[in-house]
Amino acid sequence: MDEVKDLEGWLLPWLNQYVPQFAKLAYTGIALALIVIISLGIHFVLHRVVLRWVEGRTRGTQRIWRRAFFERKLFGRLALTLQGIIIYIQAGLWLKGDTILLPAIQTAVNMWILLYALLSLYSLLDALLDIFRQRPAMRTFPLRGIFQSIKLIASIFIGLLIISALIGKSPVILLSGLGAMTAVLMLVFKDPIMGLVAGIQLSANDMLAVGDWLEMGRYGADGEVIDIGLTTVKVQNWDHTITTIPTYALISDSFKNWRGMSESGGRRIKRSVLLDASSVRFLTEDDIQRLQKSRLLGDYLNEKVQEITRYNSGKQTDMSLLVNGRRLTNLGTFRAYLGVMLREHPHIHQQMTLMVRQLEASSNGIPVEIYAFTNTTSWVVYEGIQSDIFDHIFAVLPEFDLRVHQTPTGYDMRMLAHHEQPKLKKVM
């Protein structure tokens, strides 16, 4: 307060000499003008000189943290916070304690400092989030949800300090009365609290991370996770729509995460072709000789023919009846052909499960299922490989005298009626 006394002792005699009636008012005006001039000077130095110099250094650097801090306006908000502190100090230096403006200015400046301190914290957290997202090891953590929780807690705390500054009471008094409002706060902030707990569980159990392929039928989500927030998880579906899911729903409900498939290096093919049961039969000698010319079936047929011949000879089986002995079927040979084809396919993963199996027959025919994995997880490439395999299967079926089961269409009915009409005329 010595500075105030020096300024007052120097100015007041001079003011009393020239404007005795308005000496105190003039002194207050001069003090306010001094505060404004110094504040504008500091603002000019900080924003026009220092921050521009920092911005110039930032644009020329490759360091992520420098660019992140400046892009999130951290330095600008810290400068405004510092300006508020300087104004608060000046008000205490130049204004007298009995001036009515001093408490009002200090209260307003207190709110200014608290507000920009909160905004500076927001900028710091956003900059840290940008920095951590550049590190692959940190992408699995729900940092956005954690930082949002910190922002929420800081906002409540700063709000209490602002209210205490306005009413002129200690924030301890407000905090002591906060216990009675716990039930109300739990109800109001139910979703953020549940989201925070869910985010911690998702991270601790490594259940979900940004970039994972999430499928959750209940919410219509089928796509890539682009954001894990405090209360919501955003999923960009493959049709480029955005689905928002409550974070706690990922703990209470079930969902499918395709990350394991992506990391394994192989994607499963599990598709059946339905065969007409009436087309299944034993192979004749001519069929065997014709199919032995196939590069993929030659070794298999030679081995099976020798095995079956030894078995039937050992049992002295009468082969004149089809029900006696062992024989090759066109369906079994077809399954063997598919197995060899898949084992030699350049885009099928040979270290993962690979089989061709026959499922239970039904009114829709006999299902023959391909169960294998491609050696790529790219969706477009995977669909192309799968389609090429089944294109070949449908095209090669006539070589085994097999037919695909297909429900009769209207075209089939019209063709049947067309062929039956001449016969009906002859009968009449």
Automatic annotation (TrEMBL):
Pfam families on file: MS_channel_2nd (PF00924), MS_channel_3rd (PF21082)
Localization terms from the record: Endomembrane system
Main localization, broad class: membrane
Keywords linked to the UniProt accession: Membrane, Transmembrane, Transmembrane helix
Residue ranges of the TM segments: 25-54, 74-94, 100-125, 146-166, 172-189
Mechanosensitive ion channel MscS C-terminal domain residues: 341-401
Domain Mechanosensitive ion channel MscS: 191-259
Membrane topology: Multi-pass membrane protein
Family: Belongs to the MscS (TC 1.A.23) family.
Protein's recorded name: Mechanosensitive ion channel family protein
Organism whose genome encodes this protein: Oceanimonas smirnovii
Organism taxonomic ancestry: Bacteria, Pseudomonadati, Pseudomonadota, Gammaproteobacteria, Aeromonadales
